[in-house]
Amino acid sequence: MPQVADELFSFLKATLSLHHKGGMKVTAPEDGRLVAELASDGAMSLDAKVKEAKTAQIKWAGESQAKRASMLEVLSAAVKKHRDALAGLIHLEGGKTAKEAGGEVDGSADVLLKTIKNASYAELSGMLRTKERPPIGVVGLITSFNFPLAVANWTLAPALLAGNSVIWKPSEKTPLTALAFKALFDEAFGEYKDLLQVIIGGREIGSGMVSHEGVDMISATGSVGMGKGIKADLAKKKNNAVKPILELGGNNGVIISEKMSQAHLEFSLASLLNSFLGTTGQRCTNTRRLIVHATLYGKAVAILTQKIQSFNWEEFGYNALIDEDAFRRFEKAKQDAVTEGGSIVMGNRIHKENDGFYVEPALALMPAHGKIMEEETFAPLLFIAPYEGDIDAAIALVNLPANAGLVNGIYTQSQTEADRFASGNQAGHGVINSPKGTGTPAFDMGFGGNKASGEGEILNSVDPLRAFTRDTNFTRVAQNKDIVMDQD
To answer: Can you give the pTM of this predicted structure?
Structure first.
């Protein structure tokens, strides 16, 4: 067995059996048991890791893009080789089902290769083409618990390929996956292992990283509140020349138009299950609000209720909520919905025999689009409200919350309505009759939100290196491929 396997699995064994008392606690969402206690980084260790990352980055920037790409390919192969171990960690600490955790690892390996492909230029007139641009330097990365590996690679792949190093602060709820990935990275990158540094801790160490003058750029995924905190920290820095990339969730809304057949209504509501129930409602792209024409409201609620009551839990990656705090927010949102005149269908806590926070999906049937619907509940709670009048009234409602800037959608069989929605939607993404609701919005067009849902773009399939290189001193290089280069 290769050395890296020994290191990775030894780490996993130690993590699952040994606790470092007094450290940051990591628990399993499925049953609440303590998995590990990890020592947190402080100002001194953060400073040391930033310096190590900068030293490695200066040398790394001198390597060719082809060399960087080859090392990312080695890393992708390592992730694929140890798929089951990484998926097991995501399942353990992140609470995802085994199927969904495996899918995340597969996607994480693939995005490393996809970034390389998308960053290349097609040959033109017998000339091999590249665009040389200066890297930014040290990129600070903050990731959330719901995609502890995939979202990290959305930044790691283009940042490293562009010649940067990365300081990664994973969610305090899912740090073990990051540490296991770091073990694979160290083996794959060898002399360049210091390009990736992992810091452990909560909000304080994250804020410290953002504020550190040695960190040149921030890429972060989390809540709207987290984004405000990051921008406040950045405003105090001297080294703040590069805009951050912030993906801050989405209070995503979907319109159900009256202009559709019965078959299309069935299709629409079945499609919404993907984005309502995925990852137990703990994705930034989950559908949170359903705006239904008043003439179809009762029928839509009946169909959706029936489908939810008979849905396949494993198929949608549905499991326990991440922790008790998530459960409390879920319960409060239900209570607030009732206070505003709504009624709750399902949403009970189940499997009470252990300490995991399993809940039924919940529908909040609202008399109108109320105040509670302007808040994002990161849980399997779908607000359903009627609209009357033409499609413009529905578009106004779907755009209403400041945090409805990531994905909005519509189901209709009127091209006029679809066109009105496409031009009037204020979110970063708009989906029309999507077979997976709001859940897969990018379609190789880049991923990013507007309004309070984010700033900047990641997964940029057109030019993945753009966000991680400085926008000055571009050098465009074209080399004749037919000339044999063997005179070294």
So the answer is: 0.92
